[in-house]
Amino acid sequence: MQIAVVADVHLHDLYGGYGWIEEGSGDIALRTFEDTMASTRVFNESHAAFLAVLDDIVRRDIRDVVLLGDYSDDGQPGAVAALKGILSSYEERHALRFFATFGNHDCFGPATRHQAKWLTKGDGLDPLLVTSNDDALAPAVFEIGMLGTSTEDAVEAMASYGINGLDDVFHWETPFGGSNELAKRHAPGDDPVCLDLSYLVEPQEGLWLLILDANVFHRENGSWQVRSNAAWDHVLAQRPYMLDWIADVAERARLMGKTLLALSHYPAIPLAMTGEGSKRKAACTPDWSERMPSLESGRLLAEAGLCWHFSGHMHVTGQIEHEGLVNIAVPSPVAYPGGYAVVTCDNENVECEFVRLRSVPGFDTAFAAYKTQVRRADMGPAFHEALAADDYSDFLHAHQKGVITSRHLRKDWPPGIVESLDMPVRQLIGAVPYLAAQLKHWPDIGDFQLVQMLEDYYFIRSGGEETMRALPEDRISFYRHLGNAVQTSGRMDLPIENLAVLLTALL
Fold first, then answer.
1. For residue 377, what pLDDT is reported?
2. 386 contacts 395 by C-beta, under 8 angstroms
């Protein structure tokens, strides 16, 4: 039994124009290069990357594909229609079947949400702010097609992709029974607008896919907001019946000899941890810490019977285990390293292959516009490195490097670290004897600048084992020993000590 799992496609509608460009005119609607390089995902390349993923799935003769949410960027009807056009094409030509769940970029609870994006045409000139808010001041362009959809609208659009069941599957149910009526997709007594769109489906005989809706919405300042930070903590707090249903499904799967895989948009356990037993804890930078669920959520899901959970949202590749629950983080096609996952099941044996995108035909569709924008503005070296990329893999690598420099370093680390990026590691740790001693066996690494360690951390965090294999073995060994020395010392006073521990948690 084999399935493909595709997370965080973030499809940007190049050809529909969001109502701003006349459909069929031949022109395209592009996000600006500046916005692309400032984001944790690329935009204009999403269409070509998604086609490359689906073509690879077809080549592997895989039929069933799970879309782990954030299939659109950001739930505009045009983007969703563009996605559905692609899905329909692969259904008709290659008999693929798609099973979807929603992410925080696909729908916005009981109400729609205004969106605004800086767009250019294919020439890359004169970016305009295109918005669904008719109160926006000129020179913004008002287009209702930029409006992000409500959850109910998203269900209507994606109903045929597992949300409301399929005719040619062996089994389908929800936490509330076998009905797909929207009015019944919430717990008794809950607000009917707070939908739970989870479902269990058996697409292949013996394989149960528990596709869990982990979007929980709440009112804040008069509007609906999704609780995307520590999402599973909110799911279990606000939908206590979920654990009973999961436990019932897991027990039935065991008795009937089914292979059970759970899938949702958000990670079910922290994606990096240190320590053992009661001392185990998440090991993350500040922005990640607030996005990770508690260890207790993972323990409760494991106690309910889940062994395998696949997540997206974080745009990273990796696998981590806690209390018997294995969480596999599925990469996004539009962020380094760029790819998807192939899952092979044989009874209780589950294997996951991370497939990396390298050659993506048409990934450079926006490059002419990018070059125009680079010529007209003083953009940094990361922009030029991205434009020099020979293939999609190189482009995502350059993009990631730019995001590290412009966003992660300044957001995650104190000023003292940011001001010391060019400092050699030997100089940085020389005043701390127990750290300096670690250089005895790796003298060459002492000449490395701090920025290299930081870049390695973020690349390893995103790319997992493949990134580690690409790095020199002695560098990985040094990071392990440095981190172990810090943990043995019990000290965490210096930023370099924190960095060493974070690196070790990934290795």
1. 81
2. yes
